[in-house]
Specification:
The chain has helices at residues 26-43, 54-64, 85-96, 117-133, 154-160, 206-220, 224-244, 288-296; strands spanning 18-24, 47-51, 70-72, 103-107, 140-147, 165-168, 171-174, 197-202, 248-256, 259-266, 299-305, 309-317. By secondary structure, the protein is an alpha/beta fold. Helix 7 (224-244) packs antiparallel against helix 8 (288-296).
Length: 320
């Protein structure tokens, strides 16, 4: 598999997007920190987009009243897949940034609702990718509140790696824990759950790939409507493998922790870490397969390097 490289790689020195982590403890600190950030934006003539859990949103609405410059959005409508979040934020920020009007975002991820270790890993990766999505942008900034009341320090350290700035006592400072593109440690994929089914595929084998996936998904208990969506995603990923991954690949399927997983391995390389994260433009050549997979599956994991090729895992929730 392959894709076009990112146009604007962000790094510690060059990015102008202000991405702040805000560790807080309890509702009081949440409100004081986020309201100060919002009022600072309003005083500067900026718009604000807020995406926080419903209970936090209700508190902010009550404190702000009918403030036209503040828009509340509901991330739960996007479904469970973190791979859809970057594209949603790009759209929300563009919609609110009329002309050259700066926009601030407040995004608090529901970390404790993560469904699995893989889901949690992708949530963290989403936070880091925001630096790429808004690289070189002087018009946008984002505050990411994180309740560390019950945190043992490990989760906060992992999240700190994704944010160039950290907010303390109403001010942001440089975060020395932030990792640039060359440093970001991709978490290793969990080994395939035994027993798993395996199929080698090449040109002309798409029908066999779809048939194998549908049969295994049906046996795992995946609903018919979701199997139809999965068939589209599987076709896109397998086609990319054949076209860009050396003409062939390996499919594995298994069920683990109420999740049906399809894994595609090939010899290709995807240099663009943003591939599949934002909606392709009308005149864009390629790049639609991964985006479709993100829209159709409950989780998508991508690991790619020149030395080890590409692995794409499509996750579909199985009704309990």
């Amino acid at each position: 598999m392959t894709a076009n490289p990112p146009a604007h790689p962000a790094d510690r020195a060059g990015s102008t997007f202000r991405h702040e982590l805000y560790p807080y403890r309890g509702i009081g600190q949440f409100l004081s920190g986020t309201l100060a950030y919002i009022h600072e934006a309003l005083e500067g003539g900026e718009s604000v987009v807020v995406a926080v859990p419903p209970d936090r949103a209700s508190l902010l609405r009550g404190a702000l009243g009918d403030e036209a410059a503040v828009t509340f959005v509901d991330t739960t409508t996007l479904g469970p897949n973190p791979g859809r979040l970057v594209g949603a934020w790009v759209a929300w920020m563009h919609e609110r940034g009329e002309g050259d009007r700066p926009v601030r975002g407040i995004g608090e991820t529901a970390w404790r609702e993560a469904r699995s270790a893989a889901h949690l890993s992708e949530l963290r990766y989403h936070e880091w990718l925001l630096n790429r999505a808004f690289a070189r942008s002087t018009a946008w900034s984002m505050l990411c509140p994180y309740d560390d009341t019950e945190d043992d320090g490990g989760a906060l350290r992992s999240l700190s790696r994704c944010h160039p700035l950290i907010r303390r006592n109403g001010h942001h400072v440089s975060n020395e824990d932030y990792l640039t593109a060359e440093e970001y440690p991709f978490e290793a994929l969990i080994p395939a759950c035994d027993p798993f089914h395996e199929l080698e595929y090449a040109h002309g084998d798409l029908a066999a790939v779809r048939s194998r996936v549908d049969r295994c998904a049906s046996e795992a208990g995946v609903a018919e409507e979701q199997r139809r969506k999965l068939a589209v995603a599987v076709t896109e990923i397998a086609t990319n493998s054949i076209r860009h991954g050396g003409g062939h690949g390996t499919l594995r399927t298994w069920t683990q922790d109420a999740t049906f997983v399809c894994e595609f391995r090939d010899a290709g390389h995807i240099p663009d870490v943003m591939a599949g994260r934002t909606r392709p433009s009308v005149d864009q050549i390629g790049g639609r397969g991964l985006w479709l997979a993100q829209q159709l599956c409950d989780l998508v994991e991508i690991r790619s390097s020149r030395d080890h090729g590409t692995t794409v895992r499509l996750h579909v929730d199985v009704p309990r």
